[in-house]
UniProtKB/TrEMBL annotation, chain A:
Disordered: region residues: 1-34, 177-198
ABC transmembrane type-1 domain segment(s): 96-452
Top-level lineage group: Bacteria
Similarity comment text for this entry: Belongs to the binding-protein-dependent transport system permease family.
Biological source species: Nonomuraea ferruginea
Protein name, entry field: ABC transporter permease subunit
Subcellular location: Cell membrane
Phylogenetic lineage: Bacteria, Bacillati, Actinomycetota, Actinomycetes, Streptosporangiales
Transmembrane segments: 40-59, 100-120, 132-153, 324-353, 374-392, 433-453
Topology of this chain in the membrane: Multi-pass membrane protein
Coiled coil: none
Keywords: Cell membrane, Membrane, Transmembrane, Transmembrane helix, Transport
From TrEMBL, chain B:
Key words of the record: Signal, Transport
SUPFAM superfamilies: Periplasmic binding protein-like II (SSF53850)
Keyword Transcription regulation: no
Comp. bias regions, Low complexity: 24-40
Keyword Transmembrane in annotation: no
Ranges that cross the membrane: none
Family (UniProt): Belongs to the bacterial solute-binding protein 1 family.
Leader sequence residues: 1-19
This protein's name: ABC transporter substrate-binding protein
Region (Disordered): 24-43
Length: 461, 442
């Protein structure tokens, strides 16, 4: 969008053109017999635009440059110190790094997806309807898009679509069961201990004929089976027996490590008897939490509750955590801009001479070859415009990051434009440093602006 | 001739532009003329004076404050308009100060802003009348809070009690625990609650200020008020052993996976007030450590304050239980008699009592009797402030430059969030805090 505005800028040349020739030949015939209007008239016509540009564009840029040389109070001249801060502060360097990721990844992804959509929609029947749908996000403000994606990426699968899909896919292949997040009672008196792999193992080896007590705590009320019976300490007998139970008396009281009357067994737990690292026997607990290994050869065993009993329910990815935050926000950006890229590229595609494509096909080129060797080269001017537009858009990305990234991970997702606002107004109140960041951002955008304007001029001539 | 016309047009355009420029601050135009009007109107009455007051309050809080303003209008005849600054007072006031059209009176959510704006020469010193009123009603500590370089600029007009732990009474009953009075009891109770199958704490990790509140309570109680004052002013470094002690204490409750509802990454994405909803709405956790204003969200989640939603005073970590207050400071940004009169009214016993009768208000004014508060809970809270007397402290992060203590993703907020992510790294957190503090204080 910005580019189209800028592209309008150079349309002033008409005035320039008329001014140019007149001032040239004007030297020879002098006065009266000039072809165009006089320079004064030209100035009069130029003035409104020049004035507005001056007030709204040139003056703010100039003032920002001046302001960037002063400290936060605007009283002390500090020279280039603010610019030094940009490149020495770890947080600001991270914003530059993030912007770099944005500039490299986002335009490529947007242009590629736009190209794919454009080429594919050429071939389908409902092209217009499809294009309309893909273009729709453009009608949503970035702010609203941010709010939408903040919800999409919500960690709770009940709220966030992204994780809802991931958990559904995951759970069709392996569903979680057992007692997520429950754990062995800790402490010296406890007969069991948690292992690093998440399993629970008896501290002392047990002989067959003995009974084992395995106290478990932290069982969430919602995973407690309805058919669980009060736990009963196993009475012994042949083989190895024991009880796995929820060692917590509701309302407090009870003896830790002992199955008290109101404490319930944990049915459905897998229990393993392990001898020398080998699983000798497996059992499952009954409704009162008791288990028994029958026909176990006598000897010394470790009783183990494998980790599968405690697998936490799969809840998808932490999209808004420090690692995934930037890719997640780029995803939202692509959603918004892919339609725009597609429409531009589709327009370019329509302008490609059909005969070139058909000639290639007649010569026996495969569709892929036609695409690679004919379509893309012919499209390259349009692709470049889309690409450069996207670069400028990514450099000034602000709203999506501001809204999607939760405050605690915002330093990880931070970009220059957001940092500029934060430093200047959003709490930092250092408009000197903020101006320096603004000028820095301007310098970054400038080459792409110039490139676009040049291309436009060349296209005109 | 042509040239002449061009300049004429130029001049015309320039005029139009300056007219535009002049139009923007029209809202302040009437206030500009206010002082003159008041001078002619006589000293006692402010008939015909218009004042603009900017504060962050919205909704119910705004309505209550407007009632106080109305009481002032009735008394003096001045016309007061209220402007809401939104959550970020600094972002609202900054451009208005730069533009030369600040409101007459601004209510700043942090005393740190008083120092900052005083430095920018955006504040007007209080007149003797107002200072007298402050001396009569506030302790020395509060007066200092509103001062910069020995000059008094602001009055603390509204307090928030930040030394509370809110809990869900059913979770405590199920686990069979009593509200703890010491930190060690709190840790033991948390273990019992975790064993019962409920996460003891819901942290509001995405809202950095809640973590600073937690730190301040632990620090004030374990290190004492003197150290607290020194650390507030960055007179001792954050690498001080007393900070390590406080952080280690926090690690005792934040470091255990089963203590934190939603796990660490979940907690860091939970903002205030969602963390309160987790306790009283979804009942995922037993406790949330935050100020008196939790009551509003608790009620919204359907928990009745006093029955399902209860609180206990922040437990003693060291010798004394901490009382940390937050609050709002009123300052004058224009040197008008109207602004000063309003500040004097807000600082007075009379003004405080008008406000105290409305819900959701706590007064730092020692002469406002707790009997004025509309409900039992506020009365108790008000009483704790009065009894704690000289050892009450103001929220430390709000005393700091806002780049350190009041900006999302920066300074203390960021470091404490990182610390919540990895509570084992006490030393790293201290060094990061010190580095950020050095930058902010310079």
């Amino acid at each position: 969008m910005a580019v189209t505005e800028r592209l309008d800028g150079p349309q002033d040349p008409p005035v320039d053109d008329t001014g140019g020739p007149t001032s040239g030949p004007a030297d020879t015939p002098r006065t009266r017999r000039r072809l165009g209007p006089s320079p004064t008239i030209a100035i009069v016509f130029l003035l409104p635009a020049a004035l507005l540009l001056g007030i709204w564009v040139v003056y703010p840029i100039g003032y920002s440059i001046v302001r960037s040389m002063y400290d936060s109070t605007n009283q002390v001249f500090v020279g280039l110190e603010n610019y030094g801060t940009i490149f020495s502060d770890a947080g600001t360097l991270k914003t530059i790094r993030n912007n770099l990721i944005w500039v490299i990844v986002a335009p490529i992804v947007v242009t590629t997806i736009g190209l794919i959509f454009a080429v594919l929609t050429e071939r389908i029947k409902w092209a217009t309807a499809f294009k309309l749908i893909v273009f729709m996000p453009m009608a949503v403000s970035l702010m609203a898009a941010g709010v939408i994606f903040r919800l999409v990426y919500d960690e709770d699968p009940d709220k966030g679509v992204a994780n809802a899909i991931m958990t559904v896919v995951h759970d069709t292949f392996s569903s979680s069961q057992g007692y997520p997040e429950a754990r062995a009672r800790e402490g010296d008196q406890s007969p069991v201990a948690a292992q690093e792999d998440g399993s629970v193992v008896t501290k002392q080896p047990v002989e067959s004929g003995q009974t084992v007590l395995i106290p478990i705590v932290g069982v969430k009320p919602e995973v407690m089976p309805a058919d669980a019976q009060p736990a009963v300490a196993a009475t012994g007998g042949d083989g190895l027996s024991g009880t796995v139970w929820f060692d917590f008396t509701p309302g407090g009281g009870g003896v830790n490590g002992q199955p008290d009357p109101t404490e319930k067994g944990l049915p459905g737990m897998t229990v393993e008897a392990v001898s020398d690292g080998e699983v000798a026997a497996t059992a499952t607990t009954a409704a009162d939490g008791s288990f028994r290994f029958d026909g176990l050869p006598s000897g010394s065993y470790e009783v183990r509750l494998p980790q599968e009993n405690f697998t936490a329910a799969y809840n998808g990815l932490t999209w808004l955590g420090p690692t995934l935050i930037t890719p997640a926000i780029i995803g939202a950006f692509v959603w918004v801009w892919a339609g725009f890229a597609m429409v531009l590229i589709a327009a370019g595609l329509a302008a490609i001479p059909r005969d070139a494509l058909e000639a290639a096909r007649i010569d026996g080129a495969t569709e892929w070859q036609v695409f690679r060797r004919i379509t893309v080269p012919l499209l390259s001017p349009v692709l470049l415009v889309v690409f450069v537009t996207m670069i400028i858009n990514t450099l000034k990305v602000f709203d999506l990051v501001f809204i999607i990234a939760p405050p605690s991970v915002q330093p990880e997702a931070n970009v220059i434009a957001l940092e500029m606002w934060r430093v200047a107004f959003g709490g930092g109140n250092n408009q000197g440093l903020g101006s320096a960041l603004a000028v820095f951002l301007l310098i970054l955008v400038l080459p792409f602006m110039i490139m676009n304007i040049r291309r436009f001029k060349r296209g005109e001539s | 001739m042509r040239k002449g016309r061009a300049t004429a047009i130029l001049a015309g355009l320039a005029l139009a532009v300056t007219a535009c420029g002049g139009n923007a601050p029209t809202t302040s135009q009437p206030t500009e003329s206010a002082p003159a009007a008041s001078e002619s109107g006589g000293a006692k009455t402010l008939e015909g004076v218009t004042l603009e007051v900017a504060a962050k309050w919205t909704g119910e809080e705004q309505k209550n404050f407007e009632q106080v303003l109305k009481a002032f209008s009735d008394k003096t005849g001045a016309k007061v308009t209220y402007a809401s600054t939104g959550e970020d007072t600094g972002a609202y006031l900054g451009p208005r100060i730069q533009g030369g059209s600040p409101p007459d009176v601004a209510i700043l959510p942090q005393p740190g802003l008083v120092q900052q704006y005083a430095e920018q020469k955006a504040l007007k010193p209080l007149t003797e009348d107002v200072t007298k009123e402050i001396d009569a009603n506030y302790t020395e500590y509060w007066k200092e809070l509103g001062s910069a370089d020995g000059q008094v600029y602001g009055v603390l007009i509204k307090a928030a009690h930040k030394s509370l732990v809110w809990y869900q009474s059913k979770a405590f009953e199920d686990a069979g625990v009593q509200p703890p009075t010491t930190w060690d009891e709190l840790v033991t109770a948390s273990q019992t609650i975790a064993d019962s199958g409920t996460a003891p704490f819901s942290f509001c990790g995405a809202s950095g200020w809640t973590l600073t509140d937690l730190f301040e309570n632990v620090y004030l109680s374990s290190a004492g008020p003197e150290k607290y004052d020194q650390l507030s002013k960055h007179e001792i470094p954050w690498t001080d052993p007393s900070v390590a002690t406080a952080l280690e204490k926090i690690a005792q409750i934040a470091g255990k996976k089963e203590f934190v509802a939603g796990g660490t990454s979940g907690a860091l994405q939970t903002d205030f007030p969602t963390c309160v909803t987790k306790v009283y709405g979804e009942k995922e956790a037993a406790m949330v450590i935050e100020a008196d204003f939790v009551a509003v969200t608790a009620e919204e989640s359907g928990a009745k304050v006093g029955e399902e939603a209860k609180y206990f005073p922040f437990p003693k970590v060291g010798d004394t239980a901490p009382v940390v207050l937050g609050g709002d400071v009123a300052v004058a940004m224009k040197d008008s008699p109207g602004a000063m009169a309003l500040l004097q009214f807000l600082a007075s016993k009379e003004g405080g009592e008008v406000w105290a009768k409305l819900p959701g208000y706590l007064s730092p004014n020692r002469n406002v009797s707790p009997d004025n508060y509309p409900n039992e809970m506020t009365k108790q809270l008000g009483q704790t402030i009065v009894t704690a007397g000289e050892s009450v402290r103001y929220d430390m992060s709000d005393l700091a430059p806002s780049a350190f203590g009041g900006t999302d993703g920066k300074g203390e907020w960021k470091v404490l969030q990182d610390f919540l992510r990895d509570p084992s790294d006490v030393k790293g957190a201290q060094e990061a805090l010190e580095a950020e503090a050095k930058k902010a204080w310079k």
